[in-house]
Design brief:
- The chain has 669 residues and is an alpha+beta fold.
- The strands form eight sheets. Strands 2, 3, 6, 7, 12, 20 and 21 form a seven-stranded mixed beta sheet that branches.
- The N and C termini lie far apart (128 Å).
- The protein folds into two domains: 80-218, no CATH class; 311-667, DD-peptidase/beta-lactamase superfamily (Beta-lactamase, 3-Layer(aba) Sandwich).
Length: 669
């Protein structure tokens, strides 16, 4: 029996050992998979997978006809992707790429502030900040020479001594810029940007099988005509901490280094224009070979915003505004020199014009002068600083935010209010003695002694005396209530920044009865924007129905196939409560302004082939008088309304000419 047991002992021991080993293995598997499985899986993923963000495409901005205002154009760049690059042969690859680009006339991105000249390395001139950054990056001393920096870089980036001096400099430049740009597995390095199609073909053909070299497309966002409508379009700038916190709740993803709209359409429609970038998951095996690339989050471009602007009319507006401001100033300078006097228009340097479609109050043109180049604009750049320091404030949107005294163009509003309130009748006559002095402290002077005039004659000849007396009888409270209904001193509805303006009486802190007569001729505290005056003119043309003024027509997807929002339907804001009879009285008087020989706009529009209803204005202020003008046409079936102001322009012919140029453009010369 004992002998039998001794014979089985080795088997028993082996079985026990096997069971112990199995138990240990099972326990280890349980530890790996059940207890610490998540940790080991995450570790495995981190070591073999990389997330790479893909570029977000911002939506485009077009005019009413689909012409590009701000668009994305395709450009080409050559990138070095660290995930695929062979570090051992990278320097040879870089030199080979430089040679290829040299043959096509393209440049690789060389930002190192060092040159090779006369057998030695020297710093570039006027590159103090770049030299300081270089020294700090490579831990060189404060006074390190270019030769010393090159020695440190060759050692730091392991650049072989067998290369020529110029080759070592070129390689040092690339490696240095790789370092400061954050070159990594998830951040490829842009070796050359905006290369030609010849370069694309050459690099693509000659780098087959060369790891890490890739030709990629990228989009460049730019205004097609950068001076056309910068005040309306707006610009992008670096996101601020406050904007980042605010936009984080918008449902869109923002990075701390993103750019966002700062003003204009770019800012007002940030949520629509903002695209969403995607994410690619790149997986490598243990020897570093890429085994899979998966787009885990698809990128989504922003939407396309169509404006109501007509690019052709907008260009006419800007060109005419500039030309007539310069002409007004030239005449003012000549007269000032001849007479030895000032305030004759020699200070005319700015102005604005707005044209609306009367059918829906959409903005066809909105120009502000002086203007600026949107593509050169940057939030903190030198060009921006030059604009910010310009005393003429070229970045100021005079069309929507500029508030000006408009003078006599306010008189049709006073006339309509007085007729509706039965303060006067169409045939009410007032004798103009040239100087209205009912209130000795607020004397109103007229351009001429008009003697006896009815309402039609008073509007036609722009008699201050007539409207001072009419305004006194009407009263300031009633006057501004009607002005509000015509949109004066009110927001018009345009989707970007605009000023509310100032309405005399309502917005005045200290009002005296005598101020009313000044307000009635468009002076006192009255200060309105050009877009408000265009809205006012369009409301008269639209028989007292004020619509919402707007500058955005519709929003579509990026491909322009699906309409997301349509803003083309007219939206009524107010009905001014003026009878058809009273409207016709004032409308016909405004026609007389251009058609009657004594009319103040007859010299420009007397023989115009289309009947134009209008009102001229001259407004006193610091410096030379402003010249203003409102009109609509055709008189019988109005299609467009225009408002023009030339700051310190003095002579009405120049503001009228701006409107005439726009009407020519709209109707065809």
């Amino acid at each position: 029996m004992l002998k039998k047991l001794r014979g089985k002992l080795p088997y028993t021991i082996c079985a026990a050992v096997a069971l112990i080993i199995a138990a240990i293995f099972v326990a280890r598997l349980a530890d790996w998979q059940l207890i610490h499985g998540g940790e080991y899986k995450a570790l495995s993923t981190r070591s073999t997978s990389y997330n790479v963000d893909t570029q977000a495409t911002r939506g485009e901005i077009l005019d009413r006809n689909g012409a590009g205002l701000v668009t994305n154009t395709t450009h080409y760049k050559i990138v070095i992707d660290k995930l695929y690059a062979d570090e051992d042969t990278l320097d040879n690859t870089l030199l080979f790429l430089m040679d290829l680009l040299g043959k096509t006339g393209d440049q690789w991105d060389d930002k190192l502030p060092v040159l090779y000249s006369n057998g030695s390395y020297v710093y570039r001139t006027s590159a103090e900040e770049e030299i300081k950054t270089l020294r700090e990056t490579i831990a060189a001393g404060e006074g390190a020479s270019a030769q010393e920096c090159m020695a440190l870089m060759c050692d730091r980036y392991k650049i072989k001594a067998e290369y020529s001096a110029r080759q070592r400099l070129a390689l040092a430049s690339v490696h240095y810029n790789m370092e400061i740009s954050g070159y990594s597995n998830s951040n490829p390095y842009v070796f050359a940007s905006d290369v030609s199609r010849d370069a694309v073909a050459s690099v693509s053909e000659n780098t087959q099988g060369v790891g890490g070299v890739d030709v990629q497309t990228y989009l460049v966002r730019a205004a097609q005509n950068p001076t056309l409508a910068p005040h309306v379009i707006g610009a992008l700038g670096a996101i601020t901490e406050e904007e980042y916190e605010q936009l984080s709740y918008s449902g869109k993803h923002y990075a701390i280094n993103d750019t966002v709209g700062k003003f204009g359409i770019e800012a007002a429609f940030e949520a629509e224009l903002k695209g969403e970038g995607g994410t690619k998951l790149i997986q490598r095996n243990s020897d570093g070979t890429i085994v899979d690339t998966v787009e885990t989050i698809n990128s989504k471009p922003g939407n396309t915003v169509y404006l109501t602007l007509d690019s052709r009319l907008q260009e006419i507006a800007g060109t005419s505004l500039k030309a007539n401001i310069e002409a007004a100033r030239a005449e003012g300078e000549a007269e000032s020199e001849a007479k030895g006097e000032e305030m004759l228009g020699e200070d005319c340097q700015s102005g604005a014009v707005v044209m609306l479609d009367v059918s829906d109050f959409s903005v066809l043109a909105a120009a502000s002068y002086p203007t600026y180049n949107l593509n050169k604009y940057s939030e903190y750049g030198d060009y921006y600083m030059s604009l910010a320091g310009n005393s003429l404030s070229p970045m100021y949107n005079r069309a929507f935010s500029g508030t000006f005294a408009w003078g006599s163009v306010f008189k049709p509003c006073v006339a309509l209010a007085a007729l509706e309130e039965k303060t006067i009748k169409p045939d009410t006559k007032i004798f103009c003695t040239e100087k209205y002095d009912y209130y000795p402290s607020n004397v109103v002077r007229c351009m001429h002694r008009h003697e006896e005039l009815d309402l039609r004659g008073a509007i036609t000849q722009s008699c201050n005396y007539y409207f001072a007396e009419t305004g006194r009888q009407l009263g300031i409270d009633t006057m501004y209530l009607y002005a509000e209904r015509f949109g004066l001193g009110e927001y018009t509805g345009v989707e970007i920044e605009e000023s509310k303006g100032t309405l005399a009486g309502r917005d005045s802190t200290d009002w005296q009865p005598g101020n009313t007569v000044q307000a009635a001729i468009g002076q006192s505290d009255n200060a309105f924007t050009p877009v408000q005056l265009a809205t006012y003119a369009a409301t008269i043309a639209n028989n007292g129905v004020r619509l919402k003024t707007h500058v955005v027509s519709k929003i579509t997807d990026y491909e322009r196939k699906t309409v997301i929002a349509d803003n083309s339907a007219p939206e009524t804001v107010d009905e001014c409560g003026i009878s058809a009879e009273n409207l016709e009285t004032v409308q016909s008087a405004m026609l007389n302004v251009t058609q009657a020989e004594e009319g103040t706009a007859y010299s420009v529009f007397g023989d115009y082939p289309i009947k134009v209803a209008a009102k001229t204005g001259t407004a006193e202020n610091a410096g030379s008088d402003h010249t203003t003008f409102i009109c609509y046409a055709p008189y019988d079936k109005p299609k467009v309304a225009v408002a023009v102001v030339l700051e310190h322009g003095v002579r009405g012919k120049y503001s009228m000419q701006v409107a005439k140029d726009l009407l020519d453009g709209y109707f065809g010369e």
